[in-house]
Design goal:
468 residues; alpha+beta; 3 domains; 24 helices
Length: 468
């Protein structure tokens, strides 16, 4: 068990001899003034040490300048200070535009953030702080883009309870600040994960330039693909890289049936290859087009769309993890023949002995309870192969086949149980990827009731998870 008194009284890195050799007295004082008000000191220390060890001295000095000015602006109870400091370290650590700004751009950015802190505007989480910073970087680089006043919104937020941009998702901030006319905004929600090239593409889009003409030449986007991208119907799963390429690949699959974007979104959310091995997905795009075509043509046979997930699991297993990788094809296969063999697959691979031996690291989410007049409900993570197999057998679905992904940390599986008179019974399985609840399955893959969804949403809200 963690001794929290020892944890909070532990020596801090910036107090070590190593840190004293890297910082001068003024810089150490800035760090001390910062860390005293940081909610997550460990993340601050880890990011700070990473920047110091892997950056040149000029960049470290720039970071110290930022921290000093944030300290001067925070006020004693500033609600946005801690996440903005952590977001600033994230921006330096990940070489965001903050590391390349001119002095004038830096002054604009800091001035805006100082004003934000002075109005004591709360920030929901670290991602919101990152999105705010990225918008500020665009503003500092191209102030001529700004069509709406952020300062006015700060002022009204601090004095009224009326509708305000800061009462909404920070993902929509770019549309409020910069967008004059309807633009393809598929990249905007992924602003914090964009590469330098993708960030520059966003700048060009906001500048009114043609999407097709400003795409990297190796993508060679056609007019029809451009139209699909601008329709903004593709939702990426929780990914952190190759954002633009993933959109383009998904667009090329969707092109054959442009109105079937719901099925396409299931394919890319479900595909472990799309999420974890984008190069393999790119090189095998013809196969994935055939998967999408099969699902669309046989859509009425599935009953409800979520059932398709288990077929995608099977296709992916046969294509990449069988004894003859890249040999499996859907050519000439009917829904009946595939449906029959998918059942055998779930039985056969649902009992792989290697998975039973697996144990993996859980998410930092505590066991959760809720009660009504009949039952106590509990949600807890499954962290070993044997327990995963028990869940699969009890509920008659294929969750055990996810053992490899769980062991590699790509997927986390939680079990929702009913408890009555000390008897506990699993009845819902929950799949989590990143900070998204990507699947909820009952016995024999039945869809959950609205009551169950409400329970899971309540649990998700407590743990910063949202349902896809």
């Amino acid at each position: 068990m963690i001794n929290f008194e020892d944890f909070y009284n532990r020596p801090l890195w910036y107090q070590s001899e190593e840190a004293r050799a890297l910082f001068n007295d003024a810089q150490l004082q800035i760090i001390k003034e910062t860390i005293d008000y940081i909610d997550n000191q460990l993340d601050f220390e880890n990011d700070l040490s990473h920047i110091v060890f892997w950056s040149d001295y000029t960049l470290v000095n720039r970071l110290m300048h930022w921290l000093s000015l944030l300290n001067n602006a925070k006020g004693i109870d500033s609600l946005g200070y801690s996440p903005l400091v952590l977001a600033t370290l994230w921006a330096f650590k990940n070489h965001k535009p903050i590391t390349k700004q001119t002095q004038h751009q830096c002054d604009i950015s800091i001035s805006l953030i100082q004003e934000f802190l002075s109005f004591n505007i709360p920030i929901g989480d670290l991602d919101d702080a990152k999105l705010l910073l990225m918008n500020v970087f665009i503003w500092s680089e191209r102030p001529d883009f700004v069509v709406s006043s952020l300062r006015k919104q700060m002022f009204t937020y601090s004095r009224t309870d009326t509708d305000n941009v800061f009462n909404k998702s920070y993902k929509g901030l770019i549309n409020y600040l910069f967008v004059k006319t309807p633009l393809p905004n598929f990249l905007f929600p992924y602003l914090i994960d964009c590469s330098d090239a993708e960030y520059q593409l966003i700048i060009n889009i906001l500048d009114g330039k043609s999407l097709r003409k400003n795409m990297p030449s190796d993508f060679n986007l056609s007019k029809s693909e451009n139209a699909i991208l601008q329709a903004d119907n593709i939702n990426l799963p929780q990914v952190k890289d190759h954002i633009l390429e993933r959109f383009v690949l998904a667009t090329r699959i969707l092109k054959e049936f442009p109105d079937k974007h719901e099925i396409l979104n299931i394919v890319i959310f479900r595909s472990r290859i799309f999420i974890d091995q984008i190069e393999s997905f790119r090189n095998d795009l013809v196969f994935w087009k055939s998967v999408f075509r099969f699902l669309v043509i046989n859509a009425e046979e599935f009953g409800y769309l979520n059932t398709m997930s288990h077929y995608i699991d099977y296709f992916e297993w046969q294509r990449y993890f069988s004894e003859e990788p890249l040999k499996y094809t859907l050519k000439g296969r009917t829904f009946k023949s595939v449906n029959r063999i998918v059942g055998h697959y779930h039985y056969r691979y649902g009992h792989m002995t290697t998975y039973i031996k697996y144990k993996w690291k859980p998410l930092p989410i505590e066991k959760w309870f809720s009660m009504d007049e009949t039952f106590t409900y509990a949600i807890e993570e499954i962290t070993d192969g044997k327990r995963l197999l028990d869940e699969s057998k009890a509920l008659g679905h294929c969750v055990f086949t996810y053992g490899e992904s769980c062991n590699n940390g790509f997927v986390h599986i939680f079990s929702l149980s009913k408890i009555r008179k000390a008897i506990k019974k699993s009845f819902i399985t929950i799949e989590v990827r990143g900070n998204l609840i990507t699947q909820i399955a009952g016995k024999n893959n039945q869809a959950p009731s609205q009551y169950v969804i409400d329970l899971i949403e309540e649990w998700g809200a407590v743990n910063s998870l949202s349902i896809r």
